[in-house]
Design goal:
Layout: H1 14-23, H2 28-41, E1 48-51, H3 53-68, E2 80-84, H4 111-118, E3 122-127, E4 139-140, E5 144-145, H5 161-168, E6 174-179, H6 185-190, E7 194-197, E8 213-218, H7 224-231, E9 260-263, H8 275-290, E10 294-297, H9 304-323, E11 330-331, E12 334-335, H10 342-349, H11 356-377, E13 382-386, H12 415-420, E14 424-431, E15 437-443, H13 449-462
Parallel strand pairs: 2-3, 2-6, 9-10, 9-13
Antiparallel strand pairs: 1-3, 4-5, 6-8, 7-8, 7-14, 11-12, 13-15, 14-15
Helix pairs in contact: 2-3, 9-10, 9-11
């Protein structure tokens, strides 16, 4: 083993699993069984739309044979992974969090899932999300409430809700979420995870959209590298992508010595910055400076006007989705009761009365925010900031601020890098007085994902002791009281 023999193969890193498979200390089937057992134990946390045990064990058996013959096919061969439910898999329904009947069932894998299978990954399940991914929590009309394994009274975060639970609870070493405004990084920061929202178009998608990406979530930065090695390959079936120059995703660390590092403390509009979150970001910046980085102040990127326009455009877009529902599923311009969360409906219906010219102007705000982000971060090797102004909130609450008229109050730090296409990741940086986790956001130039990961790995190694998660604090699903 490279470091230690974990208490269960479900807890092992990618490198530990690969070494164990090569030496015969473990098999992919054994790892898959350990993960499936862990998933069953944690069922009350509500992380899964579908657990595909039979398929996973069949894939693990094939990986057993490859490893026994000394011919693994990729960086994740035999490694258990999960994917978010909106990343389609053959024969697995894609409800996208809603309770609408007859969700689509793909007859082929999505491009992300295809990349994972080509690398030998064992896909054990599809993880849950809130309705249409439009919440930063694990509240769903179909799935109910998804809970943090650190404290089941707290949110999992979202919209990659189940993926965050699977990563924190060690249902295998690495998991795939999606992100259009913070949906990988927000649950990452509230669960003490390492995550990456890659450069736009680096990982191909079946349904590309402005700002949307798929990316990895894990307990350790080292486990993000092999998933990027497997998935970050151009595919011309995604018309939004283009070939990137090759990147080396070999796990490593890079010191920030000599780098120009931006520090963005002010997010602009939205929730006030928690003093504990501010203190964690300042402490991180001091450690980067002590290591030889030049720290440069970055002003607030998001503006009140741009955030309002982006939110209004997303409302109009979601309202259009509602209006396309078949007549038998609607009552006027609303779905029949129970099919979509009332919070989401109230938010969507805020798009009523927006004329076409306004909708087009609001759509252009996405590009304007992206251009502003690039301009304010140009010439910087790295930008450090909070991930979000607040820490985790109650599990049953859809958003940090529960009023539908103010839903985007917490994404002023994350949203800009979706719109600019720049890679942005998170690593844990501390805790508040209540023990809730605080993440640090790392952002870099487009196409510089591998170096960004190496800088994140450096921070993971030097961060203060109180920022290092003790995964023994994780509470298994059997600790969740019935509600």
């Amino acid at each position: 083993m490279t470091e230690h023999t974990p208490p269960s193969w479900a807890d092992a890193s990618v490198e530990e699993l690969r070494s164990a498979f090569a030496s015969g200390a473990a098999t992919p089937s054994g790892a898959a069984h350990a993960v499936l057992e862990r998933i069953g134990r944690d069922a009350p946390l509500n992380a899964y739309h579908a657990v595909t045990a039979e398929e996973a064990l069949r894939a693990a058996g094939e990986a057993d044979r490859r490893h026994a013959e000394g011919r693994p096919i990729g960086p994740l061969d035999g490694v258990p992974v999960t994917v978010k439910e909106n990343l389609g898999r053959t024969g697995v329904t894609v409800p996208s969090g809603t309770a609408l009947p007859d969700p689509p069932t793909p007859d082929r894998d999505s491009l992300v899932v295809s990349r994972l299978r080509e690398a030998g990954a064992v896909v054990v399940g599809s993880t849950v999300m809130p309705d249409w991914g439009m919440l930063s929590s694990g509240v769903s009309s179909r799935h109910g409430v998804t809970r943090s394994p650190w404290d089941p009274s707290l949110t999992s975060g979202g919209s990659s809700a189940g993926a965050a639970v699977a990563a924190a609870a060690a249902h295998g070493p690495v998991h795939v979420g999606t992100d259009i405004g913070g949906s990988i990084r927000l649950p990452g920061t509230w669960n003490a995870l390492a995550t990456l929202k890659p450069s736009a178009g680096l990982i191909p998608l079946d349904s590309p959209y402005s700002g949307r990406v798929a990316g990895p979530m894990a307990r350790r930065v080292a486990d993000l590298f092999p998933l990027m090695e497997a998935a970050a390959r151009w595919d011309d079936r995604d018309a939004s992508t283009h070939p990137f120059p090759p990147q080396d995703f070999t796990p490593a660390t890079t010191s920030p010595e000599g780098l120009r590092v931006g520090l963005q403390l002010e997010g602009g509009p939205g929730l006030p910055l928690s003093p504990a979150v501010r203190a964690a970001a300042l402490d991180a910046a001091e450690r980067f400076a002590a290591a030889g980085a030049e720290i440069v102040e970055v002003p607030a990127i998001t503006t009140e006007e741009l955030l309002l326009r982006v939110d209004r455009f997303w409302r109009v877009r979601a309202l259009n989705t509602l209006r396309k529902l078949p007549d038998h599923l609607r009552e006027g311009d609303r779905p029949r009761k129970g099919y979509v969360l009332e919070y989401i409906l109230d938010w969507c219906l805020g798009g009523r009365g927006v004329d076409g010219a306004t909708a087009v102007d609001d759509y252009e705000a996405l590009a304007e925010l992206g251009a502003r982000t690039r301009e304010l971060t140009r010439g910087l090797d790295l930008v450090l900031s909070p991930v979000t102004p607040c820490t985790a909130f109650p599990a049953e609450q859809p958003m940090p601020r529960p009023e539908p008229d103010e839903p985007m109050a917490h994404i002023s730090y994350t949203l800009p890098f979706n719109m600019s296409g720049q890679p942005a990741g998170t690593v844990n940086a501390g805790r508040d007085a209540d023990g809730k986790w605080i993440g640090l956001q790392f952002a870099g130039p487009v196409g510089d994902d591998a170096r960004l990961l190496r800088l994140m790995a450096w921070w993971e190694r030097v961060r203060p002791a109180q920022a290092v998660p003790d995964w023994r604090e994780i509470r298994s699903g059997d600790s969740v009281r019935p509600r």
